């Protein structure tokens, strides 16, 4: 019998053995017997060195054809065995039964409102900035013209560490750090967490989410601030949103204002809710920044700017008519599922 005839015989035997296998383990034994390192077809391949030169091409083609045929038969049988196992695993299963509905998740309402606020302000040319939540007294108070006897610096109002550092009471610290590292003009927003020892109630939390903004250039005016914030709140809540500015005092801005938006809760009388503080940057802040920088990049004689800070939690309350801010941190699925 010639080598070519041997190949035809082995191919036939291999395909017959493959067809009779009952599981993947026996199928693998057949593969090893014919195509393994010591397999019968592999042995013929090893003897190719003894084939006369003029016959090598024909023999090589025959050997490749046998390998291909056996490999394809192995793959086809493996797929057939898998299909049989899959079919057996669902025997008796009623495929016409309706599937169980899967609960739909969603972003937290605070994440939704933060993303929307950032998108609106980015349209106005503001860039994102960030800074540490554990801060120094300089960045949190001194640089913002807040004197040592100011109530905000009292341990009853602020979370201090033994090291003298503190949890930032606002993200205005990011504004100071930005001015320390960059020359004007700057136009940034700083969303993030802030911490105060506030009594927790329907409108106050000790840990809340804030977004602050700062615009500094050579000719920034109060009208720019008012226009920016009126645009923001109407873009956020709708063109008919009622916004009011009330004169106020902040040590780091002069003049200063608090901003209220009319909150409407179904079944209740509308009421004004404070959402932000704002004003023109006090020249004393620029002086403190210049001292920290060691130059006069923020010369109060030629530089002006405005700053604002808003509570994202309260924006969420207005957006969805939430009357108790504590709902935003209680992780009650019955409440959060409304936003899915």
General description of the model:
- The chain has 340 residues and is an alpha+beta fold.
- The chain folds into two domains: 3-89; 109-131 and 170-339, Bira Bifunctional Protein, Domain 2 (BirA Bifunctional Protein, domain 2, 2-Layer Sandwich), CATH 3.30.930.10.
- The chain is built from eleven helices and nine strands.
- Strands 1-4-5-9-8-7-6 form a seven-stranded mixed beta sheet, with helices on both faces. A two-stranded antiparallel ribbon has the order 2-3.
- A hairpin with a 7-residue loop joins strand 7 and strand 8 (271-281).
- Helix 2 (24-35) runs antiparallel to helix 4, helix 5 (109-123) packs across helix 10 (312-320) and helix 7 packs across helix 9 (283-293).
- The longest helix has 37 residues, at 53-89.
- The N and C termini lie far apart (75 Å).
- The model has no long low-confidence stretch (mean pLDDT 88).
Defining traits:
BirA Bifunctional Protein, domain 2, alpha+beta, 2 domains, two-stranded antiparallel sheet, 340 residues, 42% helix
CATH superfamily of the largest domain: Bira Bifunctional Protein, Domain 2
Strand composition percent: 15-25%
CATH architecture of the largest domain: 2-Layer Sandwich
**CATH class division of the largest domain:** Alpha Beta
- Amino- and carboxy-terminal Cα gap: 75 Å
Describe how the helices and strands are arranged.
Layout: H1 3-19, H2 24-35, H3 40-46, H4 53-89, H5 109-123, E1 127-128, E2 134-135, H6 137-140, E3 166-167, H7 172-181, E4 186-195, E5 207-217, H8 222-237, E6 243-250, E7 253-263, E8 271-281, H9 283-293, E9 304-311, H10 312-320, H11 333-336
Parallel strand pairs: 1-4
Antiparallel strand pairs: 2-3, 4-5, 5-9, 6-7, 7-8, 8-9
Helix pairs in contact: 1-2, 1-4, 2-4, 5-10, 7-9
């Amino acid at each position: 019998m010639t080598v070519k005839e041997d190949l035809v015989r082995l191919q036939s035997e291999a395909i017959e053995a493959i067809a009779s296998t009952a599981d993947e383990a026996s199928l693998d034994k057949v593969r090893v017997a014919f195509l393994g390192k010591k397999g019968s077809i592999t042995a013929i391949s090893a003897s190719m060195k003894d084939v006369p030169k003029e016959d090598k091409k024909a023999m090589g083609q025959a050997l490749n054809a046998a390998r291909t045929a056996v490999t394809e038969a192995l793959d086809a049988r493996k797929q057939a065995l898998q299909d049989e196992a899959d079919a057996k695993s669902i025997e008796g299963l009623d495929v016409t039964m309706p599937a169980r509905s899967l609960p739909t998740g969603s972003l937290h309402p605070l994440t939704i409102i933060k993303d929307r606020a950032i998108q609106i302000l980015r349209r106005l040319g503001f860039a994102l900035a960030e800074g540490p939540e554990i801060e120094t007294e300089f960045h949190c108070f001194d640089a913002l013209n807040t004197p040592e006897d100011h109530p905000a610096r009292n341990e009853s109002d602020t979370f201090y560490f033994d090291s003298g550092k503190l949890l930032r009471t606002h993200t205005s610290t990011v504004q100071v750090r930005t001015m320390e590292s960059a020359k004007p003009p700057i136009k940034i927003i700083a969303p993030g967490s802030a911490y105060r020892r506030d009594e927790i109630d329907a409108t106050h939390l000790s840990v809340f989410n804030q977004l602050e903004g700062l615009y500094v250039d050579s000719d920034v005016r109060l009208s720019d601030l008012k226009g920016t914030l009126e645009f923001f709140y109407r873009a956020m809540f709708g063109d008919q949103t009622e916004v009011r500015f009330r004169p106020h005092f902040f040590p780091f801005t002069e003049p200063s204002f608090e901003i209220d938006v009319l909150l409407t809760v179904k079944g209740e009388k509308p009421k004004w809710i404070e959402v932000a503080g704002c004003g023109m940057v006090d020249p004393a802040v620029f002086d403190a920044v210049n001292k920290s920088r060691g130059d006069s990049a923020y010369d109060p004689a030629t530089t002006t700017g405005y700053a604002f800070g808003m509570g994202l939690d309260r924006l969420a309350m207005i957006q969805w008519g939430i009357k108790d801010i504590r709902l935003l941190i209680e992780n009650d699925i019955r409440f959060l599922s409304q936003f899915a």
